[in-house]
C-alpha cells in the first residue's frame, strides 16, 4: 500500500454549538483539526496508508489528538512526544452575511518549539511515495522553516513526490516573511495547491478581472496564475480552488488543474455550507488520492472538487466521507436523495 506522509500541527478546536456566537451559551464543542492532519484523514478514508507527523505533549490533551487520528485510520507512529501545549483555535461559524471568525491560541505549542533533531526523516520516509505540507507549518515560527526544508530535502533525495498547499495566513506571518520562506521551499515542490488569494498574497501573482469579495472570479485569469507559478518554480502541476462567496452560507465551488500543458476545470457546485473549515484540505486529500490512483487530469480535478464539496456538509475539520461517495458526486449524482 502506498504511504503518504503529512507534516504539520494538529490543534484543539473549540467551537460554540451550531451557529451560536462565542459565549451565546456556556458550551464549546471540543474536536481536533489542522491542515495536514485533515489531509491524512481524507487519505486514510480512501484506503491509503496515511502517516501524520507532528510533535505533541504526552499529557491527556495531546493523547486525545493522537487517539482522534488513530480512530480514523491514520498512522501516528512517527508523532514525536514533548512540550507542554497543544495549540488551540476558537471557531465561530458564520451564517448568511455574518462571516466565520477564527481566533488562534497556538503560541508556544509543542510543534512550534520543535527542534530539527526531533525528526528522523530517513526513517519517517521509509516506503513513502508522497510528502505533503502546507504554508501554515513554516509560518508557525521557531525552527519550522528549517525543519520543513530538511523534510523537503530528505523527500527529494528519496525521489518522493512533494505537494504543498500555499495556505497563506496573515495572522501567522507577513507577506514578506511568507515570500522569503516559500520561495525557498517551493524549489522542492512538485504539486502546488492554492486558492484564489494565496498566489497574490505570497508571490504577487494575481488573476485579472476577479473580485473575490464581490463574488466575481475570472477562471481564465487563474489559468494565467497557474502557468506563472509553474513557470517560476518548475511545478509539475498546479491546482487552484475557485470559491465564489455569495454569503457565509452559500458558495459556488470549483477547481482547476494545470498539468504542465493545459488547464482542466471542474464542474461547479452550489454549496449550502454546514462547515467550511477544512474545505481546502479535503481538496488536497482528494487531489493526492486521484493522482496516486492514476486518474486522468480531468478526473483528478473532478474528484478533488467533489471531495471538497462534500466536506462542506460535514461538521468538524475532518472530511468523513468515503471514496464511493466522492465518486458518486463526481459522476454527476448530487441529488442528496436518501440512501436506502
Automatic annotation (TrEMBL):
Coiled coil: none annotated. SUPFAM superfamilies: Ribokinase-like. Residues 1-316 form the Carbohydrate kinase PfkB domain. Gene3D superfamilies: 3.40.1190.20. Keywords: Kinase, Transferase. The keyword Transferase applies. Pfam families: PfkB. It comes from the Bacteria. One of its GO terms (molecular function) is kinase activity. Belongs to the carbohydrate kinase PfkB family. This is Sugar kinase. It comes from Flavonifractor plautii (Fusobacterium plautii). The lineage of its organism: Bacteria, Bacillati, Bacillota, Clostridia, Eubacteriales.
